[in-house]
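Journal club prep — side note

Before the paper discussion, L.F. wants everyone to see what a predicted structure for a comparable chain looks like in token form. Sequence:
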Amino acid sequence: MRRLALCLAGLGLLATGCIPPNPGPTGLYLGVQPDITPVVTPKAQPVRWGAAPVTDRHYGGTLYQGTTLEQPDPRPPLLPGNLEPLRLWVADPHNGLTNRPAIIWLHGGGFAVGIDSMYGLANGVAKAYAQRGYVGFSVEYRTDTTVVGSGSNYKSLCQWVQDNPDPSSQLWLDRRAECERNIVAAQRDALAAIRWVRVNAAKYRVDPMKIAVGGFSAGAVTSSNVAYQSDDVGTIAYFRGDDRSPAGSHAQAVFGASGCTYTEDGSAPSTIGAGDSPASFIHAKYDPAVPYGCAAMTVVTARSKGLVAELTSYCTASLHAQKLYDAHKTATDDQWTTFLARELNLYTGMRPASADPTCP
């Protein structure tokens, strides 16, 4: 606020006058900068950003080797016992700038796996976006390693629930309830991560009002939920100084590959409303994991509420998440960086939000 006030006083301009004009496709935040060499947190030295009650009945298995349960915090606010430590890896542009935009990256894995993919996400796409100037945080959220089936036929709990709908079955109803719990846990963890980045903005030289959330598959579903349910923060204080504020949990932009906000019956999400985050997604019509109809319904509903909701649809494709991104990397990076530059107020003169039609 102070920087903006000084800018307005010195230039006598409107607020947008302090935002640089569009520098072209190779400008900072839009194109890869050859003079930026990002520094990524070493794989073996993650930052422990918070802790929350365990959701995985198999906690302590091979996916969690080396991560013991934390004890309750003896100082207010008191956290309950048996806490799962939550970690992150940082992809820092290492460019000497301050007040930089940040992206919180969320991994996929059907809300069941993906823990070990966080460093790869930090050292991959987060690093690539750090070379554009974004500070990346590849964040751990709680997962449930429960799977159905065995060998090559296993499915994550949520995937099985989606693929085998049977409301007459108590087993299906129980598994659906467990899946829903896992999705909510991921959403609340991501919202807490936004608050943590905001609280630690000065340490990482981040502008606390320029925080985006992006992800793939389950991470994109969580990004969508972050956009449209930022007030559902739960009752847990994840870290010292966590005020669980919905305002502090609000992302300035969300994006992802193969994500949506699910509803129980496939109807329009009732949680979407004015003031929610702008969003930009890509999705294949024949996606085998996240139904395209869910993505289309999410975007159409958001647009009806006056929100920015971009959806690039690949109407003959069946690729999912990272594979869809990799197949259309140049076009997607152009879409996402333009979206971020506009919605995070990094530049003026960006193209307006797209309102492409959904697949027939």
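L.F.'s comment for the group: The radius of gyration is 20 Å. Keep this in mind when we get to the figures.
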